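Exam revision sheet. Question 4 asks you to relate a sequence to its structure. Input first:
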Amino acid sequence: MTDERKITLDDVIDDSSAPGIRVVVFAICFCIAMLDGFDTQAIGFVAPVISQAWQLAPDSMGVVFAAGLFGLTIGALMFGPIADIYGRKGILLISVVIFGSFALATAWAQTYHQLLLFRFLTGIGLGGAMPNVIALTSEYFPKRNRTTMVTLMFIGFPIGAVVGGLAGGKLISLFGWQSIFYVGGIAPLLMLPIILLLLPESVRYLAKKDRSSAQFASILTRFNYRPKVDAAQIDILEKDSAQVSPVRVLFTEGRALATALLWIIFFVNLLILYFLVNWLPTVMTTAGVSLERAIVAIAVLNLGGVIGGFVLSRFCDKVGPFAVLALSYMLAAVFVALIGQAVTSIPLSLATIFFAGFFVIGAQFCANAVAAQFYPTAGRSAGVGWALGVGRIGSIVGPMIGGTMIAAGLTIDRLLLFSGLPAIIAAVCVLALPFVGAARTAPATVRPSEA
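Answer key, structure tokens:
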């Protein structure tokens, strides 16, 4: 068979309908992302109540936030590369078991140190799940709408936070703060049989591992590609990175500088996001807003992210991500700063919070999709996992700095102003990304719709 007549795995994915298998992958990954979002942000919902009940100072509560986020960092850095070696589905199952079990255990925490431990262990599972649902979704959808579908899947994350924000205040008032963690622990554990029985393994991972396996042949049949092809005919059309460790893939073939820029973008984005998620209810209650309305503000922030993720991803698919992301980060800096000016007016503060979420969270969705498409199969989960892992360092730093600044008596307007300024750094890195290393010639990062 000549080179011109070879059928690649990209051909099969891009030119087949495959509605059934794609719906299954999308729906399961969406639900996991939603549970991940609920459990990640759950501590922010209950922070004002626990702080008051346990007489915790702001900087002590900041350490609780950081413990969970440190766990997220460890989980993303550890489970991303492992999934590239051993498969995404099994690692995803392990991650869901971990975060579901320890979220449930958090409801029974009796001491400050138990709370720290359970949040850390919950974070490990949460951090391990996210790079794998991003990688799986990216690998099952065609180039023409891959960024959009990854973004729509990841919208499950803020939807989980929206659900928590809308229901959290009522749950806490009726059943106590522990009820948040009962919901956050039981729901993921109920997902386990669905994941085990219905979620397919990564098709690209199987192709790299063994194209002659019955599992790969079965998935290939479900793609409904015409003309019919035998699994052995498929050319995976990727340079063989099987002998290279997944993490090393991030720094070879001209990717090192682009990887560093992606890490800075993720670091800044998650620093701002987790500062807002964890401290916004406390900031608003300090300004005299009721707890129930302060928790609703988190729902509004994430609702803005849901809409922003969808709108921005469509622009990224049409015109490429760089200009869209750079403008989004600059506007994020503006709207985060404006929250501090509007906090005493409920309608105005909710409007600024909505647009802060639109640009901060919406941009993060698009950055996830870009990272997933930038790396080859042998390093895809590692690439996304390490970008998220480094970003999680920002998510640790943000809440801790916030606690320190609040304890130091910084005024709300200055607190929010300083919190938004790092977004300008992310904008500069986005603008530099197309001109460095592999990014200069990687269509996936220049124009996701052509990846």
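Marking note for examiners. The chain is about 80% helix and 0% strand.
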